[in-house]
Write a structure and sequence with these properties.
CATH class of the largest domain in chain B: Mainly Alpha
Number of domains of chain B: 2
Helix content of chain A: 10-25%
CATH class of the largest domain in chain A: Alpha Beta
Structural class of chain A: alpha+beta
CATH architecture of the largest domain in chain A: 3-Layer(aba) Sandwich
Number of strands of chain B: 2
CATH architecture of the largest domain in chain B: Orthogonal Bundle
Shape of chain A: globular
Number of strands of chain A: 20
CATH topology of the largest domain in chain B: MetI-like fold
Oligomer: heterodimer
Helix content of chain B: 55-70%
Largest sheet of chain B: 2 strands, antiparallel
CATH topology of the largest domain in chain A: Rossmann fold
Number of helices of chain A: 8
Structural class of chain B: mainly alpha
Order of helices and strands of chain B: HHHHHHHHHEEHHHHHHHHHH
Strand order of the largest sheet of chain A: 6-7-8-3-9-10
CATH superfamily of the largest domain in chain A: P-loop containing nucleotide triphosphate hydrolases
Chain lengths: ~350, ~425
């Protein structure tokens, strides 16, 4: 099936000196939930704004259903959009807000009333139709904004960090709701966030932005388990990034030489021998051994336990290695009682990935 | 998701009463300290503004001069009705009163007051007092002998209507109305007075200034609110620079610019564009231009501050929902800035209503509005009663406008930026 949206060689610069988006090529599949994930200033929001029509690409073209799109003014793009601060119209009631896109499209009154009610039911917010946005809580306002962006049944809905202003509990609830809404109505959603946890929870696919380019575009599991480079490894989920030099390649594995520690084995990314590298290892993949308790198989390191953080369901331990680099280990909360001092850590070679530094 | 509410537990009645007492005590002390903070300013305003203002305005409805100078006459006329013949008692009482007035000054105020109502009455009264050596045997014959108008019921009506203690005479005059000798309210003959015209002129000029201020101020404020910070700063400076110069200085500057020998005329003539100087001064245009120049910040600043509260995302949202720019402007932007527009208009309109210097210096006779008349009646031809009544008209219209403003802005909810 053809992609619904295609960015082709899109570049964007504001000042003519630095590029916010660099030669972006991205296809959005019909009906998918695609998240643009990245730190602030990585070009994800700018890309979204170009799709919505609020920013013009400096060069390149955006296609909708294989038709060039960037000449069209925003109000004729038929794209729904949910803004970070909701952008509800404060002088209109909730009902009037949701009816607005329908009135613009000159639907008849009865149809508008029916659709507004249905939209409010869809976001599970009946009974607020006559209230003003300011009388609603943040979460309720977000639902109204969502209903307003969906009520005229656009093929694509864009969301620009829509949950950023909500507290954590509410945010997690809304993530599930938006996701199930997406599955129910089958609209294409493009979602911008800097929260990798949110991206992992909601998305069909995630595009990780950094410095105006896409570092990796993949399904959440691949992104987490097989990051394409050191940036993705560090940005998506927690990771220990240990610096060293690639000493030797052994098939699809390599040995990283870390002065003062020795040789550590890991899966190889695209790196040449002798190059400085980063070895990424997830905190939850590391096993901890204390005192006489023997460490596991694979890579074995010794160090000093210097910090323990109690997280309730888990304990986060910081271990300093002989070369003063630190590794973070996530373990069961029982290990909170581990005494500070010499410890051993170990992990399986295939859990660590070696990237060019 | 679970929300944990900490509901206040219900208290026992006695405990609740104690709590309420404690609350009342703490609120009382907070109120007291708040009152202490505003007291100095309150006293100051009471002494130098509110007090004098009320005293001045009260002159517009007080009528004490005649009752003070001619107490017996006032008493004699109390039960007289216009359709009855003039009672002999009134002539006798007036003769009594005038005989008791040993100096002209004793009846001067009353004579002046009566002259407002009936021109010529001052001279009649003063000359009657001057000839009153001893009480005449037949007062009626004495007065009518001095002037046949003493036999006129209108003369006595005027005295009776001026006998106080309160009067609507000045207020009616301010609206070009008067009481006829029968006591009914009627319009003054055309050409005799022109206060209504002056009122309308004042409102007309203020309305013009306000309309022009909206026309010029709206786009300026819009650009200032939507452009970058540096540009907005420069625009703000341009707007406020004239604001830091005294009004008088600016008005004189305008008169130097626009005079027949002024810079504009000289410049145009030296360029050969004019042979005869243009009459730029002493007309409506000069007054409007100057007032606009003085008051435009009062329009731009409230507009700007309201426009600034409307986030760009709202206009973007309107566009993404399918509204073309003109529709987004009309349905989203405009309704939200009504409070700013109303506040700006109110400020410009009210300030223009009360301005004295500009029309006095730059306007011709046809630009002289109420404030100029008020100043006239206080300084040049003293008639404080009329000055007070005209001020009252001005004040009441300002409050009516304010009331309208409150009504108007209440229908629109103040813009609350949704966070």
């Amino acid at each position: 099936m053809d992609p619904i949206v295609r960015f082709q060689n899109i570049c964007k610069t504001y000042d003519g000196r630095s590029q916010v988006v660099r030669d972006l090529n991205l296809s959005v599949e019909r009906g998918e939930f695609l998240t643009l994930l990245g730190p602030s200033g990585s070009g994800k929001t700018t890309s979204l704004m170009m799709l919505a029509g609020f920013e013009m690409p400096t060069s390149g073209e955006i296609y909708l259903d294989n038709k060039p799109f960037s000449g069209l003014p925003p109000h004729r793009r038929e794209i729904g959009m949910v803004f970070q601060n909701y952008a509800l119209f404060p002088h209109m009631s909730v009902g009037e807000n949701i009816a607005f896109p329908l009135q613009v499209r000159r639907l008849d009154r009865q149809e508008i009333v029916t659709r507004v009610r249905r939209a409010l039911d869809m976001v599970q917010l009946p009974g607020v139709i006559d209230r003003k946005p300011a009388e609603l809580s943040g979460g309720q306002q977000q639902r109204v904004a969502l209903a307003r962006a969906l009520v005229y049944e656009p093929a694509i809905v864009l969301m620009d960090e829509p949950l950023g202003a909500l507290d954590r509990q509410l945010r997690e609830g809304m993530q599930i709701e938006i996701k199930s809404l997406h599955q129910r109505i089958g609209v294409t959603m493009i979602y911008v966030t800097h929260d990798q946890q949110e991206a992992l929870t909601m998305s069909d696919r995630i595009a990780v932005f950094n410095g105006g380019v896409i570092e990796q575009l993949a399904v959440p599991k691949t992104l987490y388990d097989v990051p394409a480079n050191a940036f993705v490894a560090g940005f998506v989920g927690e990771n220990n990034l240990l610096r060293g030099r690639l000493a030797r390649r052994i098939g699809d594995e390599g040995e990283v030489d870390m002065p003062g520690i020795g040789l550590i084995r890991g899966r190889l990314g695209e790196v040449a021998e002798g190059q400085p590298v980063v070895l990424a290892i997830r905190p939850e993949k590391i096993a901890l051994g204390t005192g006489s308790c023997p460490p596991g198989e694979g890579n074995r390191l010794s160090g000093n336990l210097i910090e323990r953080i109690y997280l309730g369901d888990q304990t986060k331990l910081t271990i300093q290695l002989p070369d003063r680099q630190t590794v973070t280990v996530k373990a069961g909360s029982l290990l909170f009682d581990a005494a500070e001092g010499p410890v051993n850590v170990s992990w399986a070679p295939e859990d660590g990935i070696v990237f060019a530094a | 998701m679970t929300a944990v509410h900490a509901d206040g537990a219900l208290l026992q009645p006695a405990e609740a009463k104690r709590l309420a007492r404690r609350l009342a005590r703490s609120e009382r002390s907070a109120r007291l300290s708040a009152l202490l903070l505003v007291t100095p300013l309150l006293l100051f305003l009471l002494m130098v503004f509110i007090g004098p203002l009320l005293m001045m305005l009260s002159r517009g409805v007080r009528d004490a001069e005649v009752a003070q100078a001619l107490p017996a006459t006032v008493l004699a006329l109390r039960n007289w009705r216009h359709d009855a013949p003039i009672p002999d008692a009134a002539f006798r009482a007036l003769a009594d009163d005038l005989a008791k007035a040993h100096t002209p000054a004793a009846v001067a105020d009353a004579a002046a007051r009566l002259n407002y109502a009936l021109p010529g009455l001052r001279a009649m009264l003063m000359s009657a007092r001057a000839r009153m050596r001893n009480l005449p045997v037949d007062p009626r014959a004495f007065f009518v002998g001095l002037s046949p108008r003493w036999d006129d019921k209108e003369t006595w009506s005027a005295i009776r209507q001026a006998s106080g203690p309160l009067t609507d005479f000045y207020l009616l005059s301010a609206l070009d109305l008067r009481r006829s000798s029968t006591g009914a309210i009627e319009a003054v003959p055309a050409g005799e007075s022109a206060f209504v015209q002056a009122i309308l002129r004042t409102f007309g000029i203020s309305f013009g200034v306000t309309a022009l201020a909206i026309l010029l101020g709206f786009p300026f404020a819009y650009l200032m609110a939507t452009t970058g910070r540096r540009m907005a700063g420069v625009m703000m400076l341009i707007l406020l620079l004239p604001f830091w110069t005294a009004v008088m200085v600016r008005v004189l500057a305008w008169s130097m610019l626009l005079g027949r020998e002024g810079i504009v005329n000289d410049g145009l003539r030296s360029l050969g564009l004019l042979s005869q100087p243009l009459d730029l001064l002493y007309n409506r245009t000069a007054v409007l231009v100057s007032l606009l120049h003085i008051f435009i910040p009062y329009m731009v600043l409230p507009l700007y501050s309201v426009m600034k509260t409307i986030p760009t995302s709202q206009m973007r949202a309107a566009a993404s929902l399918g509204a073309p720019p003109a529709m987004a402007f009309r349905r989203i932007f405009l309704p939200q800035i009504v409070p700013g527009l109303a506040a700006g208009s109110l400020l410009v309109f009210i300030h223009s209503l009360g301005v004295f210097v500009v029309p006095a210096v730059l306007g011709g006779p046809r630009e002289q509005g109420l404030p100029v008349l008020v100043v006239n009646y206080v300084t040049k031809t003293p008639n404080w009663g009329l000055a007070a009544a005209l001020s009252m008209v001005l004040l009441v219209s300002v409050y009516l406008l304010y009331w309208l403003f409150v009504k108007l802005t209440k229908t629109v909810t103040p813009s609350v930026s949704a966070r």
